[in-house]
Amino acid sequence: MDVDPLVDRLRTRRRELQLTQARVARAVGVNEGTLRRWELGHDGPPKLRVLDRWAAVPGLRLDWRLVVSGVSRDVVSRETDT
């Protein structure tokens, strides 16, 4: 199964932070099995609102998620500064 690139980066970061799937699943508002299936690519990528909650987990900041998605931090900064 192909894992969504953004989900793969979130999973990698979760592991770097030594966060369990159970802890992240609780923060996201899904059960652990759902998170596990997303991380393994068994289900389609989660909806944007779920990704927003996932990226809000401590250590998985929004600006990090935007950079992973290919949006330049500079562009985001310029757009929000105006």
How are the elements arranged and paired?
Layout: H1 5-16, H2 21-28, H3 32-40, H4 48-55, H5 62-68, H6 73-81
Compose a concise summary of this entry.
With 82 residues, the protein is mainly α.
Describe the structure.
With 82 residues, the protein is an all-alpha fold. It has a single domain (5-81), classed as 434 Repressor (Amino-terminal Domain). 65% of the residues lie in helices and 0% in strands. The chain has 6 helices and no strands. Helix 2 (21-28) crosses helix 3 and helix 2 (21-28) packs across helix 4 (48-55). Residues 71-82 have low confidence and may be disordered.
Question: What brief labels describe this structure?
Answer:
mainly alpha, disordered C terminus
CATH class bucket: Mainly Alpha
Distance between the termini: 42 Å
Q: By helix and strand content, what is the structural category?
A: mainly alpha
Shape: globular
Radius of gyration: 13 Å
Show unreliable segments: 71-82
Q: What is the CATH fold-level name?
A: 434 Repressor (Amino-terminal Domain)
User: Which range does the strand content fall in?
Assistant: under 5%
Tell me the domain tally.
Answer: 1
Helix-strand pattern: HHHHHH
The number of distinct helices, counting runs of at least 4 residues, comes to 6
Largest sheet report: none
How much helicity do the residues have? 55-70%
Q: Identify the CATH architecture.
A: Orthogonal Bundle
CATH superfamily: lambda repressor-like DNA-binding domains
How many β-strand runs?
Answer: 0
